[in-house]
Amino acid sequence: MAKTKEISRRIKSVTSTKKITKAMEMVAAAKMRKAIDAVLKTRTYAKLSWETVLHLAKLAESRSDSLHTLLTPRSKIEKVAIILITSNRGMCGGYNSAIIAKARELIKNNNTPTDFIIVGKKGAIVHNYKYEIAAEFEKSDVITDAKEIYPVVKLALSDYQNKKYDKIFVAYTDFVNPAKQIPRLKQLLPIELEKTDENLGQVEGQEQDNHNIIFDYTFEPNPAEVLDRIIPRLLEVQLYQAFLEANASEHSARMTAMHQATEAANDMVAELTLFYNKARQAGITAEIAEISAGANALAE
Questions:
Q1: What architecture (CATH level 2) is domain 2-18+259-293?
Q2: Three-state secondary structure along 204-229?
Q3: Are 165 and 190 in contact (CB under 8 A)?
Q4: Is 92 labeled as catalytic in the residue annotation?
């Protein structure tokens, strides 16, 4: 009897956990739909803005002897910063560990002193790996305005222009579909003129536009002042898109993790119910055997 009571308690406990994971799955699914809508609305703009600035920069380079300071690679890379976008909470499978591993891989390959600019509470775990955290920022579950990322952009520009860092990367998770998210690293500063923005917001199976269209631009008042205004805006757009991709990926990962947890709870309840029925049957059989043995003893 004691064994059946213990199994019954476990069934109730797992059933309660299943209700929680199911509720979390539904909440994550609702947030995921909003995040995906935001991602899809801005992807084309982010890509075109990147291509436009690259055309402007190349044209300005051809008309002058020097590159803009935000486009000029440093001759010596002494220190690097990584803007690490993680979640505020767990329960999202390997979402955080995958992007942190991607950032650590870059550090290992470059072998350069690196600071982290953390966005999202879970990113603080890099401190356990003995990395320096230069700044921490809060992250909303659903980003609705580019103004939310302005402090991060302002810090990145300031630190790069003051030569605190010679390169700045952003580590984010690119949303492909609800079942697939890819951790990526993108160099924000200096902007690389020879690299197109092939990864940011790339959709699996979507055809990429590879037409190289060259436009001619008139710079007013001059190329330097135009780039002074437009390059920071480009960084805002790129970082904003990275935030949107990361949010869509996070909610997708959490929905998938909670769905799997719910399915596992269902399997566990079914297994425990089977054990309960077997234990109950064994108890009944034992009681019948005892009654039969007693009846036989009295008959003798």
A1: Orthogonal Bundle (1.10)
A2: CCCCCCCCCCCCCCCCCCCHHHHHHH
A3: no
A4: yes
Residue 120 identity (one-letter amino acid): G
Question: What string of pLDDT tens digits covers the 300 residues of the chain?
Answer: 557 888 888 899 999 999 999 999 999 898 888 888 888 888 888 888 777 777 777 776 666 656 677 878 888 888 999 999 999 888 888 899 999 999 999 988 888 889 999 998 898 888 888 888 989 998 887 777 788 888 999 999 999 989 899 999 999 999 988 888 999 998 888 887 665 555 554 443 344 444 455 556 666 777 777 777 888 888 888 888 999 999 999 999 999 999 999 999 999 999 988 888 888 787 778 777 777 777 777 776
Active-site residue, from 85, 92, 100, 191: 92
* Cα three-residue angle 104-135-67, rounded to 5 degrees: 80
Closest by CA to 199, choosing from 28, 43, 9, 24, is: 43
- In the sheet that holds 167-177, the strands lie side by side as 132-137, 114-119, 80-85, 167-177, 180-189
CATH superfamily of 23-206+213-255: ATP synthase, F1 complex, gamma subunit (3.40.1380.10)
User: What's the CA gap between 160 and 42, in Å, rounded?
Assistant: 26
Q: Which residue has the tokens 């401190």?
A: 127
Query: What residue ranges do the domains of the chain occupy?
Result: 2-18+259-293, 23-206+213-255
Longest dimension (CA), the chain: 118
At position 84, the amino acid (one-letter code) is L
Please identify which residue in the block is written with the tokens 């160099």.
187
